[in-house]
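quick one
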Amino acid sequence: MEATIEVSGLRKRYGPTVALDGMTFTVAPGKVTGFVGPNGAGKSTTMRVILGLDSVDEGHALVGGRPYRSLRHPLRQVGSLLDASALQPSRTGRNHLLWLAHSQGLGARRVDEVAERVGLTSAIRRKAGGYSLGMRQRLGIAAALLGDPPVLVLDEPVNGMDPEGIRWVRGFLRALAAEGRAVLVSSHLMSELQDTADHVVIAGRGKVIADVGVAELIEAASGARVTVRTSDRTAAMTVLARAGATVAVTATDTLTVSGLSGERVVALLGEDSVPFSEVSAHRASLEEAYMELTRDAVEFHAAGDAR
Ligand SMILES: Nc1ncnc2c1ncn2[C@@H]1O[C@H](COP(=O)(O)OP(=O)(O)OP(=O)(O)O)[C@@H](O)[C@H]1O
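structure w/ adenosine-5'-triphosphate:
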């Protein structure tokens, strides 16, 4: 099976709420594709449609060229994690996996393999009800991997994980993609995808607002700006503004300059003997790039979040 996901023109309403408004993107094999957007952007609904759990008013989603519901062995073709807390608390982690494995004609050996792969071996015989959210996420990822599927769909897999867990998921997702799998992973925080995603699909109000490689996105958001570090901020601002630059103060000793090249900044500061310890091309963080793109698409802001 070709390891791809194709989402094409999905439209869906819940009464007056437009959940999906033409959502369209493709997930390629061998990459981690981050699916990012503010709350209510339509990420979970899209994932449910990909997995055949939700219907749409228009459009279609294909996995390996076919609708999920027509796949012969769906769990061997697509692994998914939608809600890590959806488990029976009195069952051990191992029994939870055994129950799923049996439904796919898989045995106990595969269960122990995936438990080991996600680092749950020592806890796998304990009741899942006593697991932390992070351990439940690992159990959910183990379940997604049971059928060794070429496509993975994971909804907020780092939710509730501690920094060590988050680091583990990042490396793990990269390794799964390096094995040639198509990995679609959602998050409402771009920063969670830093060092993980090769590509991002940014959603807002039910549609795609950017579908772009991470390197390209950072490059575009960085713009033609220059970072200047100086012990004489006032003098530097005066000289650079006089030459026509737009200058913003980004820290006590740091300025971000637009409208002049790095070489020109160095020359101007040199001519006026303004001290500086660094002049470099500004590099936007993934978070910064994301904020710029989603500014107009945010459905609502958290209370107290000034606009
Ligand atoms: N079962 C439902 N009934 C009514 N409205 C729904 C239902 N499911 C989703 N919606 C609405 O559809 C829109 C998209 O929701 P969805 O959960 O797909 O977004 P999301 O990007 O996954 O957000 P979050 O990060 O909060 O999970 C939202 O406005 C949501 O309130």
